[in-house]
User: What shape does this take?
Amino acid sequence: MTAQADVGRQARQHARWHWSEVAFWILALSCAFLFPSRYLIMTDIVRLALFALSLDLILGYAGIVSLGHAAFFGVGAYSAGLLALHGIVTEPVMALVVAGLVATAVGFLTSFLVIRGADLTRLMVTLGIALLLEALAERFSNVTGGTDGLQGIEMQPILGLFAFDMFGKVGFFYCLAVLFLLFLLARRIVHSPFGLSLRAIRNNPLRAAAIGIPVNRRLIAIYTLAACYAGIAGALFTQTTALASLDVFSFERSADLMLVLVIGGTGYLYGGLIGAVVFRMLQEVFSTITPQYWQFWIGLVLVVIVLVGRARMHRWALWAPNLIIRQLGGRKAIVAVPESDAP
Assistant: This one.
């Protein structure tokens, strides 16, 4: 009983909000006022962050590797586009919910294929699902618009009050609000007993099954939830850009998502958010300096991160502050994150 109480106490401590988390969201909101001319790229970053969050739920917490996560992004994007184009659901928030439910259904139906086999099998299955959906979207071009995509999408004001503007201001606040609400839900889930069971499955599925955790049902549940999140991210893409084309299913979109999590780290939710910011900023800077070779420089940054490691880079970054503290006579230096605890 003492051990159970100790585990519960530690879980509650991990679930508490840290001041750095509050500062992160205040900074994200303040960007709207600090960079009023950059709403479009900030909206793109928020959409990518939500998309990365959806992948982190299955990769960082359940250990499911996916190279076809864009399948659900595309399902959500086309669902929102078709609903608006044909006047079925014209209110953006309701359309967002419906698109998320459609992606959830697709995720649930495909989850039974994904949970079979090991990592390599899952990679191939998830990639095959995305390629299959892209082929179906191209085949039924009378519905999806084919290579031209959906044309003439007009979005109604959000809740009938806030109309989308050409500068992207309303779209940014809309996407940020959706990201924050879904992040709160994800945070609650990963700090719950359900989230702890996912970590156990990621670390050792056989041992988790031996202690009574229903491994397959847990994996199906989190995979379905991740599909819902990815579908909502896709719906936000269509609603804020008034565009949905076959590109939403592309392998490059799934690959970029993996790069985002490589940069930001997995298994602590903020990795996808931070990785999205860094990835888009690197892309923006390198494409401005060398428009033809920006991918080379991003690849070089990823190689450095993999070879050096985030924990070691963190210690290097703290070298100068620690030196200043010692010079000023301080007794306690800033402690770097241990290698084993680094995301």
